[in-house]
């Protein structure tokens, strides 16, 4: 629907409220609107309500126009109101942003009826000027109020257009009204009304045309954007998730993602039901697990450099001196890309060191992503993507994914709620390093001890949901163990933590 043309009752008048500061030609604008309506053969009435504001004085003008021409009324004459009713305004015109917000705050506009045409320019109040610091009202907050409490808005710096055209804002606002289509009058009638005024006609017509063209151009652009978006709908979550998996590894990995989702769809009776929709996200996130290859790619991404520049406030023409990335990969990160037998030996060696109370082995690195050597080092890590498939961790992650996937598949065939609860356990797989390992341990424990058993499937689904939220609540699995104990399931064994003694340096 055109934002300016809301459905209108044939016997209800079109109500217009003009809000203007002193000396801005509010009375002239109201008179132009009234005379244009009369010229077009419509019954109309105009009244004004003098008022006093904190700036140069403010007066509101109220116009009502019957939506049917007099020729169609068969001699009948409509009866108009002399004053506006809050919430019953079709068109609110204003020359100043705070004044617009004041009337909207008084309840004059309504979200289901009112088109607000307002200048975004400001005239400071006395209070704003008296403040020692910056006492100006927040324009963004005022604009939010207008957009929240109006059916549609046409917001622009009409004062700037008036200055550029060498005229007053009333002529510019009239052009905005004509372009909006809020009133059933052609452009030519508005221009004839201006010409009959006899004073400053050329400048007024210039300002009228500037606003008319600006509003028309903006609406054409909005219509074009809507047309393009309608012709090319945004990709759904499944498409985005698959693209992430393919980008992470290759097209074959994307096909594996499709095959895994197809198994869940089959379990739901051949449709993409709630369980499949839930698995779309969590399966993709797990399959695209973070490793040193993926991290290197993220560090080299062009979008990342742009984000860094924004965060440090690099201005146009300035040079970002340097970006240094600090890494501390441990043996598990290196072993992830090694064949399984060799990887197990390396990891076992590191665990023996930790059992003796030593720190896990790690290699501190400082790479300048802005330098040739740093970028080349990251690029070399990225090129190890092909080795990922042959690595120890890739095989392990696929084994764990299959374990979870099979559990979801079986549970879905048994009970949809149980399958959905297990699918949502994918939330537990997050982060990097120990956080990721802890999440996988929790998920597998829930799958192996709560999703199975002699309880009715709906009861097991509730237990799985409760355990999942408990696992997300704390890192030490205390709440998860409480849930497991209540269910009579085996508790999670605490992870062994070596005790390390550090020799204190003798005091001087």
Write the layout of secondary structure elements.
Blueprint: E1 14-21, H1 26-39, E2 42-50, E3 58-69, E4 91-94, H2 97-105, E5 115-119, H3 126-130, H4 139-148, E6 152-156, H5 158-165, H6 169-180, H7 187-197, H8 201-231, H9 237-248, H10 251-267, H11 274-287, H12 292-300, H13 302-312, E7 324-327, H14 331-335, H15 340-355, E8 365-368, H16 372-382, H17 385-388, H18 392-414, H19 416-424, H20 434-449, H21 457-473, H22 478-486
Detailed description of the structure:
The chain is α/β, with parallel strands linked by helices and 508 residues long. The protein folds into two domains: 14-231, Pyruvate-ferredoxin Oxidoreductase, domain 3 (3-Layer(aba) Sandwich), CATH 3.40.920; 250-283 and 392-496, no CATH class. 54% of the residues lie in helices and 10% in strands. It contains 22 helices and eight strands. The protein has helices spanning 26-39, 97-105, 126-130, 139-148, 158-165, 169-180, 187-197, 201-231, 237-248, 251-267, 274-287, 292-300, 302-312, 331-335, 340-355, 372-382, 385-388, 392-414, 416-424, 434-449, 457-473, 478-486, and strands spanning 14-21, 42-50, 58-69, 91-94, 115-119, 152-156, 324-327, 365-368. The strands form two sheets. It has a six-stranded mixed sheet, with helices on both faces. The chain has a two-stranded antiparallel ribbon with strand order 7-8. Helix 5 (158-165) packs across helix 6 and helix 12 (292-300) crosses helix 16 (372-382). The termini are far apart.
